[in-house]
Amino acid sequence: MTTPQSMDLGAFAHPALFYHSTTEYLDCLVPFITEGLHAEQKVLVAVPGPNLAILREALGGAAAGVTMADMTEAGRNPGRILGSVLSRFADQHAPHPVRMIGEPIWASRSEAEYPACVQHEALINNAFAGRDLTVLCPYDATNLDPSVIADARITHPELWHAGAKETSLAFAPNAVREHYNQPLPDSSTAVTYTVRKLSDLAGARVFAAAYARWFGLSPNAVSTLQLIANELAGSVQHTHGSCRLAFWCHDGHVICEARNSGCLDDELVGRRPYDNESPRGRGLFVVNAVADLVRTYTVPKETTIRAYLRLEEAA
Amino acid sequence: MCTAFPHLGFRYERRSEFLTGAAEYIAEGLRRNQRIVYVGDRSRGALRAELTGMPGVGDGLKSGAVEIRQSEDHYVFQSGSDIIDAHSAVASYEAAADDAIAQGYSGFRAVVDVTPVARTPEQREALARLEYLVDQKMALLPFSAMCAYDTSELGTAAAELICLHPLVEPGSVAFQLHADPHGVRDCVLTGEIDACSNALFATTLQRVWPLVASDPLQVDARALEFIGPEQLRVLDESARRRNRNVVLCSDQRIVTRLAELIALTSVTVAPVGDCRPDEGESAIEQVKGLLIETFGLQAQEAFAVLARFARITDTTVSERAERIRADLAIDAPDDRRRATLDALKTIHDELRASWT
Q: I need a surface site. Which of A110, A229, B52, B226 has the fewest CB within 10 A?
């Protein structure tokens, strides 16, 4: 991962909007949307539910022409926003330019979720560089921590404030991604299962199901955890080494972690639409889609991927 | 599966394992008053010695209920080859079942060591066709078979054939694909299909497509314990290449979710309640349905009742089914309805005594 800090994005525009009030939010986003519609561009709005509601109201009749998604659902796991929301929308309408609004960070994002959010914001640049489209990312400058705003300056090449636009001098998406690529320490309460060959996958699924049932997960959550374990441990067919699965519960989540001795050298792996992925990427795409959060740590000779399922919904 | 006519795929490494399994299977058939044929690739004397060593089988040999056949006399081969002719083989099983019923047996079961005709890929291709076709028939007719495969000789290739059986020993194959014994959907897919099974799953699908004409093909996937996204893709691509459509009948949310995620083109997942059999079914199917409901039978047992009725009254099965349908129609005279129901009940009671 030695891409230069300054990245040539070509026609791709990826501004961050720092808003301080609902008025500022609407004053910027409503014209952005309606101008797009007038230019016959397809528009996607993926923001948290309450913001979606005020935008819908402000747009009135024009809302009907806009694709809308509640980001707290569609993008609950930041790892799936690119593959399942943004790229999917952009590809549906390719080669025509589209306008997308993506607000992946809100004040109640947890400490575990946040690094994945920044990595997602950074990777938007890699995913769309050179394509004629726009992803506008609103940030609630009143309620978000200043460090979040500082990170947004690093992940976005362009910054919008009430009425003003500036180039971000701090723009360095690859560096910030590296910064948040931190080791994920072992849990002392984890139970582990090592998959050495494909024929161990059946055993891994039995193990995952037993663990999930022990914690009283619903039948659907049991199958979801089995699927996650299967897709993560399926890496043994690509990395030619063993994969250690670990399961534990923490902070309202059941966690399935996979550790192997390979390196994820494709930064967008698991974040492209399913059909454009490599076999390894397709497995990670599925994990991103069904998990509530996916965290990754990768260096040469070690990769850890951690998938979280929320317990209150799993039970 | 608890049924009078189980189609069993049996793998063994030592002959003694085979003999233990065969003894059980034969004893069960004799208990149910079925006609048995025992087929193997060795001398008649050796086969007889094996049978006489099985508890309770000696009497069956004496009475003629158990027949010995050598492999070369049993199989019909495609001319000039060692590859079996699947369609002729199915026809000869049907005839054997017919004969058995005519002679007063409750059905027919074959115990066959199939290893000699499963050695090459070409042999297995034809044998897979036979296994699936015969399974379709077994879902309807009163006959069954234990198909034994020597894995010390065939290795993992045995799985290509064992997975086509509705009944297998626990742990012998990861998944099974076979005809629906209830005759409601086209086939049944059970077990677990993961990355280990990609090649086997693709091969199995390729072999089964030409044998099932329905479009869309309805697959009962209620007992499918796991299918990975890549394997759903294998199914989708296989169907697309053949220009076929598949409905996976499953109430598992994870299967529905996966299907949405990976945007399948030729496979849809439908709730079990939405997968219904075709309208306008034949009289045979209607009468079978009635018997299944009235007496709580398996499809093949229902057919056995119908076949026995046809035999007693010297009519064909479909003629008899038409008559039964007419006799039981709402506007039919009461006495005729009663007589028909009584006759069915008597035949059912006789046969049930031999099944249970």
A: B52
Instruction: Give, in order, the Cα–Cα distances in Å from B18 to each of A232, B111, B129, B167.
Output: 40, 10, 23, 16
Do B124 and B211 fall within a single domain? no
For B261, the closest of A199, A234, A274 (CB atoms) is A274
Instruction: Residue A148: give the domain boundaries.
Output: 15-179
Q: Among B278, B306, B328, where does a domain finish?
A: B278
- Residue A243 CA from chain centroid, whole number: 24
Question: Among partner residues A220, A234, A286, which is closest to B195 by beta-carbon distance?
Answer: A234
Q: What is the pLDDT of residues A132-189, one digit of tens each?
A: 999 999 999 999 999 999 999 999 999 999 879 999 999 999 999 999 999 998 899 9
Q: For helices A219-233 and A279-290, give the axis angle rounded to 10 degrees.
A: 150
Closest-CA distance of chain A to residue B148, Å: 24
Question: If you measure CA to CA, which chain A residue comes closest to B253?
Answer: A220
For B345, the domain range is 283-355
State the total domains in chain A. Answer: 2
Residue B191 sits at the chain A interface (C-beta within 8 Å): no
B153 and B7 in a common domain:
yes
Domain count for chain B, please give it. Answer: 3
Residue A253 C-beta-side C-alpha neighbours within 13 Å? 18
Mean pLDDT of A283-295: 97
Cβ of A199 within 8 Å of Cβ of B196? The answer is: yes
Structure pTM? 0.85
The interface pTM score, or ipTM, of the predicted complex is 0.90
